[in-house]
Specification:
Structural class: alpha/beta
Number of strands: 11
Order of helices and strands: EHEHEEHEHEEHHHHEEEEHHH
Largest sheet: 7 strands, mixed
Helix content: 25-40%
CATH architecture of the largest domain: 3-Layer(aba) Sandwich
Number of helices: 11
Radius of gyration: 21 Å
Strand content: 15-25%
Distance between the termini: 23 Å
Mean pLDDT: 91
Number of domains: 2
Length: 375
């Protein structure tokens, strides 16, 4: 067996989706997650000899082996999500980032700091706390000796799921990668505004990482669904109650899609404020994309598949296996048996093809260049 290309540590590992995206050229030396059900899913797919289950604050640098090439942190996002409390990096679960920071500082003190870090989070990271949280994150990375930049990436470029996320990449030496300024599609207005708010000293440490847009996606939500007879559908009465929650705009969207033949859409129930009152609404999309997968206990309800065909509208919940396909997971990936547990695992995960693109175009060139320079 050939020697591994690169080694990495995966924090807040969940079901190991970042690991899958990095690919076979990478070896996971250490993984951590505090959620016992996610840890069980990780073990079911990758074994558990290198997995430490528990709070990141309980770890010390002595628990982390060697000097890895990369540390990946998909830190909890609930306090930064637009659907959450927006308490910021210091609030509750998102303060776990500072546990990660503490470990990286400790590795640095021992001369074992990874040359590259990746921090993945929701888009709310860019504006949380009026931008103060993102500035604090950049200052923390600068204090560890890294230069840094970020990319706004929607998994919809690769998969039929709308899933925008922010990826902060920090490197001890950018190695000439990057470009002069922001460029579409992965440097959006929110990122440009977050960069503009940084103090000049931090702007001087910024890197505009580059990532090529992939070829046009050729799959739609309908392509990843189970055959109609293989899944459980809502009763006609339950479907009717769901459709009754639609505002006129979404009812018209459904009728327009249905008039064109078989139409497959994705629906979420959301709370909207109308005329000063909170109203529950069913909102549907027929653009070939699923909505962003979320944890079932989060700010939005479990995602529903709506099919209009031959004048009949049917609805059902998205299954765990369908959710796995929307994240780019292989068919043999072992999911929790319970649908709620499977969807929680997936809703907190990172889309596999996005990680692969980052590995191929940014992370591996960074590390390969570093090795060449050291040879």
């Amino acid at each position: 067996m050939s020697a591994p290309g690169f080694t990495f540590l995966e924090f807040f590992a969940g079901g190991g989706m970042a690991r899958l995206g990095l690919g076979r050229g990478w070896t996971c030396a250490f993984a951590n997650d505090f959620d016992s059900r996610k840890a069980a899913a990780y073990r079911a797919n990758f074994g558990g000899d290198h997995l430490a289950e528990g709070d990141i604050w309980s770890l010390t640098p002595a628990d982390l082996p060697g000097r890895p090439d990369l540390a990946w942190a998909s830190s909890p996002c609930q306090d930064l999500s637009l659907a959450g409390l927006r308490g910021g990096l210091e609030a509750g679960r998102s303060s776990a980032f500072w546990g990660f920071h503490r470990l990286m500082a400790g590795l640095g003190d021992e001369g074992r700091a990874p040359p590259v870090l990746v921090i993945e989070n929701v888009g709310g990271l860019l504006s949380s706390g009026g931008g103060r949280d993102f500035t604090a994150l950049c200052a923390a990375l600068d204090g560890l000796g890294y230069r840094f930049g970020a990319l706004e990436i929607d998994a919809a470029h690769w998969l039929p799921q709308s899933r925008p996320r922010v990826f902060v990449i920090a490197a001890q030496d950018p190695g000439g990668l990057g470009q002069a300024g922001p460029a579409a599609p992965f440097h959006g207005e929110r990122l440009a505004a977050a960069h503009a708010r940084l103090p000049e000293a931090l702007k001087a440490r910024w890197v505009w990482w580059t990532l090529a847009a992939p070829p046009a996606r050729n799959t739609r939500l309908a392509d990843l669904l189970e055959p109609d007879p293989a899944v459980d559908w809502f009763s006609a009465a339950r479907t009717g109650r769901l459709l009754a929650l639609m505002a006129p705009l979404h009812r018209a969207r459904l009728e327009s899609a249905a008039a064109q033949g078989r139409a497959v859409g994705a629906l979420y129930r959301r709370v909207r404020v109308e005329q000063g009152c909170k109203v529950q609404r069913a909102e549907v999309r027929f653009d070939g994309l699923a909505g962003c997968l979320r944890t079932p206990a989060g700010g939005s309800s479990r995602q529903v598949v709506v099919v209009a065909d031959g004048g009949v509208v049917r609805a059902r919940h998205l299954t765990g296996r369908e959710g796995a396909r929307l994240m780019g997971l292989p068919e043999d990936y072992v999911l929790p048996k319970a649908s709620t547990a499977a969807l929680k695992l997936l809703g907190d995960g990172v889309a596999v093809p996005v990680v692969r693109a980052l590995a191929e175009q940014v992370l591996e060139p960074l590390l390969a260049g570093r090795r060449r320079a050291a040879a």
